[in-house]
Design brief:
188 residues; mainly alpha; 63% helix; globular
Length: 188
């Protein structure tokens, strides 16, 4: 026991003798490690019909969840989208359902699960403000578009609706990376 105490005291004494550098060492500037600008996995690699259907789902969540001074206008724009593009949206849904049917098995259960995940994804509170802003921009851009133009614009607007939910950008200090590769600092 006495030996252990002596060893601890010696270690502490030696640690206290460690000197500091005579000059301050500036940290290396952070090196940004950006995730791919591709959509998050739930909205990646979609067919044109699926992209349009996912866009409709994201705009639906925005119409339900976005509150504030522009909420009534957002709901009205969503309802106008449904009314003005009923045929195009029905066709997109039919094609999207066909993708699930073609895969076989219990396609309806897989489709329902996928839709639940999609709505839960867009319903996350952490991206709500960005979702609402992206929905406003999407509605402004697609207003007056016909069905083919809406379908063509769907991937671009889906990516914008998706962006607020993307993982945070990681910044890694070059010095920290050299000293300890496990140190990462998340930022937005």
């Amino acid at each position: 026991m006495a030996m252990r105490r002596l060893l601890c005291l010696t270690t502490l004494a030696l640690a206290g003798c460690a000197g500091r550098p005579a000059f301050p060492v500036a940290p290396a500037p952070p090196v940004a490690v950006e995730p791919s600008p591709a959509p998050t996995p739930i909205n990646a690699g979609l067919s044109p019909a699926a992209a349009l259907w996912h866009l409709r789902a994201g705009l639906n969540v925005a119409a339900i969840a976005c509150r504030g001074p522009g909420e009534a206008a957002l709901v009205a724009r969503y309802n106008a989208l449904l009314a003005g593009h009923a045929a195009g949206l029905r066709a997109a849904e039919a094609a999207y359902l066909s993708e699930f049917r073609t895969a076989g098995g219990d396609w309806r259960d897989r489709y329902d699960d996928a839709q639940t995940r999609l709505y839960n994804f867009f319903g996350q509170a952490r991206g709500r403000a960005g979702l609402c802003a992206a929905a406003e921009a999407a509605f402004a851009a697609i207003e007056g578009a016909d069905d083919p133009a809406l379908a063509a614009a769907a991937p671009e607007h889906l990516t914008a609706l998706d962006r607020p939910f993307a993982p945070p950008r990681l910044e890694v200090s070059a010095r920290a990376l050299a000293e300890s590769p496990a140190i990462l600092v998340a930022s937005r």
